[in-house]
Amino acid sequence: MKNIKNIYSPLIWLVLGVIFLVIGLNNQNHTFLIFAGCDITIGSALLGIATKKKK
């Protein structure tokens, strides 16, 4: 996997996750809640990779 030097990519995933979470909670739609969980998980993983310090 390539190094993720761009910090905006994980943040976009996190913002999409929050948007899907709000839509899912407002409309009580389980599909959007699943999308939100997946997007937040992907965004968190990418953010962890992007901010990982090299030894």
Written overview of the protein:
This protein is an all-alpha fold. The protein has one domain (4-53). It is built from two helices and no strands. Helix 1 packs antiparallel against helix 2 (30-50). The longest helix is centred in the last third of the chain and has 21 residues, at 30-50. It is elongated, with a radius of gyration of 13 Å. It starts with 7 loop residues before the first helix and ends in a 5-residue tail after the last helix. The chain crosses the membrane at residues 7-25, 31-50. Keywords: Membrane, Transmembrane, Transmembrane helix.
Keywords:
2 helices; 75% helix; mainly alpha; 55 residues; single chain
Q: Topology, pairings included?
A:
Blueprint: H1 8-27, H2 30-50
Helix pairs in contact: 1-2
Can you tell me the number of structural domains?
A: 1
Number of strand segments: 0
Distance between the termini: 18 Å
Query: What's the rounded overall pLDDT mean?
Result: 85
Order of helices and strands: HH
Contiguous low-pLDDT stretches (5 residues minimum) are: none
Number of helices: 2
Radius of gyration: 13 Å
Q: State the helicity in percent bands.
A: over 70%
Oligomer type: single chain
> By helix and strand content, what is the structural category?
mainly alpha
Shape: elongated
Strand content: under 5%
The main β sheet shows up as:
none
